[in-house]
Amino acid sequence: MLFGKEHVERYRATGGEEGHEWNGTTTLILTTTGRTSGEPRSTPLIYRTDGDAYVVVASYGGAPDHPQWYKNLQADPQVRVQVKAEEFRARARTATPGEKSRLWPYMAEVWPQYDEYQKSTDRDIPVVLLEPVP
């Protein structure tokens, strides 16, 4: 089972042929800029589309703190996204409460563990929209 650094490497090497389909759902590769290092940081994330946007969840398995990729995009919302062989620039933003109320169940349809993750932490797990930019 791929995930983490190996997932990113196989996904990139195969144009998403390996890694896009993962555990019954789909993943993309999100590349943020490290907020202290300035280095690119790539993370495989489960996604779904909502109009032109790609939706991801900053669950971190229900950990008490936000994942590093979320902290990075808060510092710099300009990101790169790879979906299968397509790579593009996007602007990341946290869903509004109204958007989240609609998108959370939409994401939990493909990864029901999100509901368990939210129950296991006091933090409000963010839903993030990755909006492609020209």
UniProtKB/TrEMBL annotation:
The reactions it catalyses are:
oxidized coenzyme F420-(gamma-L-Glu)(n) + a quinol + H(+) = reduced coenzyme F420-(gamma-L-Glu)(n) + a quinone
Write out the GO cellular component annotations. Answer: plasma membrane
Query: GO molecular-function annotation terms?
Result: coenzyme F420 binding; oxidoreductase activity
Task: Return the similarity comment.
Answer: Belongs to the F420H(2)-dependent quinone reductase family.
Q: What is the official name of this protein in its record?
A: Nitroreductase
According to its UniProt entry, this protein's organism is Streptomonospora alba
